[in-house]
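note to self: dont lose this again. the chain is below, predicted strucutre after it. 68 aa total, dont forget to put it in the shared folder this time
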Amino acid sequence: MDEQTDRGEEETYCGAPAATAGAETAAGPPYAECVLCRKPTEYPDSVKGITLCPVCAWQEAQRTACSG
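---
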């Protein structure tokens, strides 16, 4: 038997931010602006809510990631 399963511990992970969860990527312009740096994102202009460019999305994920 595995010692980790004997202890009954389960690993837990933080989920990714859901700022643009469920949004589809755009096939072409017009693209939505990033709310932080105002650069074009990969999402269509019609997407509602917070839209982040890939760089800002990565930086936001780094800021909100679990530590330890």
